[in-house]
Amino acid sequence: MKQNTEELIKRHAYFNRKFFARWAPYYDLVAFVLKPLRYDAARRLQLPHDSRVLDVATGTGEQALALAKAGYDVTGIDLSPDMLKRATKKRTSSIKLKFVHSDATQLPFTSNSFDATTISFALHDMPYEIRLLVLKEMIRVTKNNGIIMTIDYLEPSKGLLGAITYRFVRRFETPMYEDFIHKGLLIHLTKVGLVPQTQTTLFIGQIKICKNKK
Q1: Which domain CATH number covers 71?
Q2: Domain containing 115: what range?
Q3: In the chain, how many domains are there?
Q4: How far apart are alpha carbons 154 and 164 in whole angstroms?
Q5: In Å, what is the CA distance from 41 to each residue of 87, 116, 118, 149, 196?
Q6: Minimal CA–CA distance to 87: which of 57, 58, 53?
Q7: Which of helix, strand or coil describes residue 132?
Q8: Is the sign of the CA dihedral 172, 174, 177, 179 positive or negative?
Q9: pLDDT digit string, tens, across residues 123-152
Q10: pTM for this structure?
């Protein structure tokens, strides 16, 4: 079982690097529509100034940037060196923001390191088993009673807007998107023992905020 998991992680890492090497130059243009949602999500954390926040699968760093501008001490982590090259260009001296190249299934941080962890429009790009491993790692590095915030696309079952979103998004997303979107974000959270305290739908996305109860 361990060997199978390790092989899956390697295959996903290889796929991730190749896929996002192609997408990196265009990602911010395509994902521009998500920008207001990312800033709204950052405001909803409502943590003290300078709280430590980890943004998992940060990509080009848009969510991490929104969190840093909200006053948090932010670390963004991602598998794709091409996406991180874009992310690092967004750092300024006026905010606390850094980026780390690493695998989110094995986060390079000690347990209980962060006041909050976030993952934004990334779980749907992972195989099911990887999604669960990443969520478990987020639980591990988040302090007890800290916040775990997940943000992703609406499911097609969520009314007309969800159905329209699904038909549009599936045209350019990874093959893992179909499995994720039909299972639904809540199923993944429940599987690892997370219970949303608040759930918000904004445009084509959904935000679920959980308290980390260890």
Answers
A1: 3.40.50.150
A2: 2-211
A3: 1
A4: 10
A5: 19, 12, 10, 8, 14
A6: 58
A7: helix
A8: positive
A9: 999 999 999 999 999 999 999 999 999 999
A10: 0.93
